[in-house]
Amino acid sequence: MALEVNPKKHEALWCLGNAYTSQGFLYAEATKAQEHFDQAAECFQKALAEDPTSEVYKKALEMTAKAPALHMELQRQLSQQSALQQLSTSSEAPASSAPGKAAEGGSDFYYDLAGWGILGLITVGWIFMSRSQTK
């Protein structure tokens, strides 16, 4: 909207360039992301043409040039993380159906029960001790 009113408004061009860069990182496909990075670079170049002294616009243009490599690294790490998650969930699934695992779940109940029992005994003992000291 701001660019419709004044197409040379460099602040609006900078914001639009940031939006294109951010949107590019949302796509897993490199060609689709590159389209957005190219649009961002065009916006930053126009903003820099309007205000050539702006260090912010120069830095934004530099970062957009590095965006495809960052995107590729991000996608690589996401795929590794996804593979690790799939591996860990597939290794946990058989273990949860093992009979030993069910016994461990049952032992948690007994530990909880023992903990509440001990707490109850401590509370009763505390009450008796406080009553015996008041007599």
Task: Give a brief rundown of this model.
The protein has 135 residues and is mainly α. It has five helices and no strands. It has helices at 2-5, 10-25, 30-50, 55-96, 99-134.
Mean of the pLDDT scores? 83
Total strands: 0
Give the CA-CA distance, first to last residue: 83 Å
Largest sheet: none
Q: H/E order of the elements?
A: HHHHH
User: What sort of overall outline do the alpha carbons produce when their principal axes are compared?
Assistant: elongated
Q: Compute the number of helices.
A: 5
Report the radius of gyration as a whole number of Å.
31 Å
What class do helices, strands and sheet pairing give? mainly alpha
User: Stretches where pLDDT falls below 50 for ≥5 residues?
Assistant: none
Strand content: under 5%
What is the helix content?
A: over 70%
Protein topology:
Layout: H1 2-5, H2 10-25, H3 30-50, H4 55-96, H5 99-134
Report on this model:
Helix 2 runs antiparallel to helix 3, helix 2 packs parallel to helix 4 and helix 3 (30-50) runs antiparallel to helix 4. With 135 residues, the protein is mainly α. It is built from 5 helices and no strands. It starts with a helix and ends with a helix. The longest helix has 42 residues, at 55-96. The mean pLDDT is 83.
List keywords for this structure.
135 residues, 5 helices
